[in-house]
Amino acid sequence: MSLRRFFRRSRWDDERARELEAHLAIERDENVARGMTPDEAWDAARRKLGNATLVREEIYRMNTIAVLETVWQDLRHGVRLLRLNPAFALVAILSLALGVGANTAIFQLLDAVRLRTLPVQNPRQLAEVRIAVAKGGRTGHFTSRRPMLTYPIWEQIRDRQQAFSSAFVWAANDFNLTTGGEGRYAQGLWVSGDFFQTLGVAALAGRVLTREDDRPGCAAPPAVISSGFWQREYGGEPSILGRQILLDGHAYAVAGVTPPSFFGVEVGRAFDVAIPLCAEPLSLGADSAITRPASWFLAMFGRLKPGWTVESAGAHLATLSAAIFAGTVPSDYRADDAEHYRAFKLGAFAADTGVSNLRRDYESPLWLLLGTTGLVLVIACANLANLMLARATAREREVAVRLAIGASRWRVVRQLLAESLLLAVAGAAAGALIARWLSAFLVGLLATDRDPIFVALAIDWRVFAFTAALAVLTCAVFGLAPAIRVTGLSPGAAMKAGSRGSTDARERFGLRRALVVAQVALSLVLVAGALLFVRSFRNLMTVDAGFRQDGVLMVRMDLTHTGVPAGRQIAFRQEIVDRLAALPGVTSAAQTRMVPTGGGFWNENIVVAGKVLPDYINLNVVSPGYFKTLGMPILNGRDFDVRLDTPASENVVIVNQAFARKVWPDQNPIGEAFQIDEPPGVPRPVFRVIAIVKDSKYDDLRETFGPIGFFAAAQNPKPRPELRVALRYEAPTAAVTAAVTGAMAALDRSIELQFQTLEAQIRNSLLRERLMATLSGIFGALAGLIAAIGLYGVMSYMVARRRNEIGIRMALGAGRADVLRMVLREAGGLLAAGLAIGLVLAVAASTTAQSLLFGLKPWDPATLALGAIGLGAVAMLASYLPALRASRLEPTEALREE
Amino acid sequence: MPAMPKRGNPPIQGEMLQGTLDLLILKTLVVGPAHGHTIAYAIEHRSEDVLQVEHGSLYPALHRLEDRGWIASFWGTSENNRKARYYRLTPKGRKQLTAQTSRWDEIVRAVNRILRPA
Fold first, then answer.
1. Are residues A165 and A310 in the same domain?
2. Lower CB density within 10 Å: C or N end of chain B?
3. In which domain, by residue range, is A271 found?
4. Is there a contact between A410 and B37 if contact means CB atoms under 8 Å apart?
5. Is A248 in contact with A558 (CB distance < 8 Å)?
6. Do B82 and A29 touch (CB under 8 A)?
7. Do A411 and B55 touch (CB under 8 A)?
8. What does the CA dihedral A878, A880, A882, A883 come to, rounded to 10 degrees?
9. Contact with chain A for residue B14, Cβ under 8 A
10. From the CB of residue A177, how many other CB atoms can be counted at a distance below 10 Å?
11. Which domains does chain B have, with CATH numbers?
12. pLDDT above 90 coverage of chain A, percent
């Protein structure tokens, strides 16, 4: 019994048939020679040979592998059945493909973002070091995407720790590739010397950075670029090594290219270029986080020495903490900050899957979406189960005959399952194709111009296993029940059932009814969930932010290279603003340090009448016209004025209503004053309130209005090299950006520009909500549709089976309206049961999504009612058609049938 | 194989000892290639009609022997001009025949010792 024979067994069988024919012929010839008539000769030959078919079967079986043989038979049988009904097969495969595709796509994202380890050597030996216990909170300047440590803390850990064989720190930064004009940015990393060596990443070409490259005070260090950047920017040119690359106006020689699989240690981002940490001051100059005290901007990874675990390393770091923090108290800390600081404790955390803001923001939404798509798949399976039940019922007699003549029940079940398996596998295969496209689409949804997202969407074993498991599971769910069901009938009953029956036994509908009820219930969960997310998103879109979102363009400028002397900075900035305000299409312009919901913030404790207020107050620095530009009405008092408010005049501040309420309740705040709680030795100017402005959101549309203080840009003697100008405009955006670029080039070619409309900025800040609303909306609609189709199918089927009964009823005098009512009552009962169960489930399920909602509760009655009514209406419509068909039956025809 | 209808054992083992038919087929083919029909009659004749081969049972045996590589087959023309499948002994089959024959002798001697003790 070899596989070769197995695959050629039918050829072998032909061979045998011919051989046996020959045998018979020879025997007959001899019989004729012995004097028999041809007929007698033939019969005698056949008697002598015995049953030729049995012989062939015996030989066939010798060649075959029994399990394979019957599975193959079953599959072929299944294919034939499906080809008889291509519409059914198409609908089934398509609905499964959508279900499996959506699940696989979401799972693929989860796999990439959450489950997969970093593509570096032995990722399980990696640990991240950060502050585990920070009572009282950290104080200082927070820059980069992962501001975990300061440079002095890193130096201390590096020199004292015993747990890691090597360690590194890194900080992400966008490097400008241009000089002047609108900026173009590379995703960059500052890395300490042992970055590549610790990770065990070797260069694809050239060399990686080493400790030699990272010397404090380095003047012209080399750079290493990623494969992606090499391809994108240089077309993969081999001559890249040694070439100069301009980052933030400084030239770096390219020393090497990293392999394509290496994207860095931050999942969701891909770095373009890595340069030594010692080059950080080259980009930031006086703002360098290495030299500025209390600058949190570094993230640290270490590779555990053999024998060390993350826990033991964490304990080790905790014991070192006291000495490390005592030795690095930032010079400008106040006494209480320093006290908190000295009590900080370091810890080690597993870093085999890297670090990720994407994971932080999207892990729970993704799990939630996976649950949603899982439910969609379950609903689709229930639908298929119903269809399969109908098909199986139609084959009851055939199955009964087969059981009666001796087929085993398992054999018949297997044959019925083969059909389901074919559908499941075809659906899963098509789903896997859909998933590839869908997951790329999802990643596209998450990315913005400012935040390019990189997710390595490889099909790894986990994704494959997931999809395969889905296929098997769906097959079991929608195939097993009908198969077991139809073979469970006693053959006698089944043979009788089809022949004549006025009503269909209620019991035989039980399973199908239960399936429809379950479908409706689960659909309601999804529809209600979708409505929650959509309404939540709508709430955010329409929430009163306190400023006008439309028609505002934010221009970010880098003035580092202008060479304007410190004494002229304020005037220079005002000149820029005035020039831009005068551009055609621009109605007003103003400086601002912060963009609302832009992610940046500045907060301080303030001192009122000698008393430090306990809560931080959000602050901003703006120029005259800012409130007009953002559409924030000044309720009382005057706007800033460049002639009145100068560095020499009294310091002034404009506060919002919440500020006034909090600090001076029941009092007119105009004319009142406060100070910023500056560290000892820093002067504390007094700011006098000159106006109250309407409340607005500061960092997040989800926040409630909080106190904000606005200082005058013209009184800020040491402005930062970065300038942001808000423009209100009434012309096409492209025309305005072009006009601004032209005007700035005329003023100073070295100024780098970045544009973003406030609307786009806010849209990006609501990315997660948009994603949840869009996807859950799609899935909810899909679920509702499938459930409606399911109900339609069951009601149509029921009407078809009860034609006789309905005919008799009508013959006995039931009116069309009565029949209509009867069918609808039946459908309504199923629907009501489904909706009731669904409501309970929806409330339970949506509480898990509470943190993702804005402005409503998970059990929001209006949303639940809306979902139930909407789904109910669609479902009733779906059952109205079969009901109508039933009511139009001609009694005579219905009775004459069969 | 739960699905196949259950049937009795093939008749080959009914009258003859396990493997005897195989041995007889191999022996028959020593003189030269033959087709199934000839093999069946040859066995009957040489045993002076004591051993009746059910023709049907011959073919599974031929198939099994070919499967093991002891005999090989080819299509040829029979003495009365009909296409027939001929079988011939392979070198491997020849070795098997020697081994099986001495094994057979051993068995016969052993059985005889029991039936006719000296």
1. yes
2. C
3. 123-352
4. no
5. no
6. yes
7. no
8. 160
9. no
10. 17
11. 18-115 (1.10.10.10)
12. 36
